[in-house]
Write a structure and sequence with these properties.
2 copies of one chain form a homodimer.
Chain A lengths: L2 E4 L13 E6 L4 H10 L4 E4 L3 H9 L3 E6 L2 E2 L21 E5 L3 H7 L5 E5 L4 H11 L2 E6 L8 H17 L7 H13 L3 H4 L4 H8 L3 H7 L9 E4 L2 E4 L2
Parallel strand pairs in A: 1-8, 2-7, 2-8, 3-6, 4-6
Antiparallel strand pairs in A: 4-5, 9-10
Helix pairs in contact in A: 4-5, 5-6
């Protein structure tokens, strides 16, 4: 089985996505928030791209998470801080969510064979699922407004390395090799490695260091969010 | 002065290119071939995107280089092997050139303040020029058919590291940080580092190891190809 890494949703159409499982990655913070939400008992989530749709879902009575540029949009219930999803108010609920990068990446990948959500919080669950499915894999980094970012690439590298070292996966893809090398450099202290990252600086300005440390924690939330039509649901 | 690295011509429009010098990189092999050509006395080059234009230039009596997928197109004079440009036949001549990736990257960057051609063969010349100009810099990796590739990223990392360490440049760009880290890993033996790269495998199949070793040689050709209207000319 082949592994590819796509560094930006903009480049997604260049990759083979037929008969391929796409892993959508937005470490800071949409994919970490979604993983946390399911771990905390959210029933379903509805990933949406536009604020217009978000307003419609709000009018229809849903709990709606809406984030742009790191902040909760006025009038909505949640942003993409994972800590917002750690309370009983979300348990059993359906939550619509739109974010700057992550939900856009989910949108472009809808034509794939299967779409799952990956974060450091569910790394081993993702690896186990991919090994069970035995299909080609495309790691889709959400990036920042279609640009490359480090933290999403590190996750792609972590998962790709495990699949290649421990299972029957391989790669001939330069971006996969780069992601693995970057992860090997960073893995002992990802927080420090990211200290020069533009996105980390952006979040730090918003005093969200606690979020970053949490989002870099391994296997805290062993659940598998998987796309099922318009919903994200909790996979087996 | 700010440094940015763009991993694919597809992403170029996302970057700030006003008041910015763009360094077009296609290590294997267009930017290495162009650097070699000027070092060997080519007078001017005309970078063109399409094979249609290439046929037109051929009809008009020009020497025309035309490469796709690593091979010289039938009926043309040269491909993008640097060794093709190391003979007296090209001296003083104007050569039109179209390649799979590199000349496409030149095409998208025409709206920048200045466009220069970077390769390991003229690394120090590029650095010296950028430091003299004192403008923001965007390293544009040609990649492979709009996908990320390792060798172009390594060159971007090498040049960015030198500009930041030795001169007054800085970066807040994740792709620049990634490129620098990859170069630091690879610099002692880039040929071995690239041994797993898909593009290197593609060239090796075509028995072009000699080209690769040459293209990874530092400062063999201290010239600066610079875009001047429709021509590439030799800068000061």
């Amino acid at each position: 089985m082949d592994i590819q890494v796509c560094f930006s949703p903009l480049s997604y159409p260049l990759f083979d996505y037929k008969n391929t499982i796409v892993v959508v990655i937005d470490i800071l913070r949409a994919s970490s928030a979604i993983t946390t939400a399911f771990y905390n008992g959210v029933s379903k989530m509805i990933p949406i791209s536009s604020l217009e749709e978000a307003h419609q879902y709000k009018q229809d009575g849903y709990i709606v998470a809406a984030e742009r540029d790191g902040l909760i949009i006025d009038g909505f219930d949640l942003g993409n801080s994972p800590f917002g999803y750690m309370n009983n108010k979300v348990k059993g609920k359906v939550i619509a969510i739109t974010t700057t990068n992550g939900t856009q990446a989910i949108e472009v990948s809808r034509n794939a064979c299967k779409v799952i959500i990956g974060s450091f919080l569910n790394l081993n669950t993702v690896i186990k699922f991919l090994n069970k499915e035995k299909k080609n894999v495309l790691f889709l980094c959400s990036g920042w407004k279609n640009k490359f970012n480090l933290e999403d690439s590190l996750f792609a590298g972590a998962a790709a390395q495990a699949l290649i070292n421990d299972f029957e996966f391989k790669t001939i893809c330069d971006s996969t090799i780069a992601a693995i090398e970057l992860y090997k450099l960073a893995k002992d202290d990802m927080f420090t490695f990211l200290k020069n990252s533009s996105h980390r600086k952006r979040l730090s300005k918003l005093e969200l260091d606690r979020d970053i440390k949490y989002c870099l924690t391994l296997n805290q939330c062993p659940v598998l969010p998987i796309l099922d039509g318009k919903f994200l649901i909790k996979g087996d």
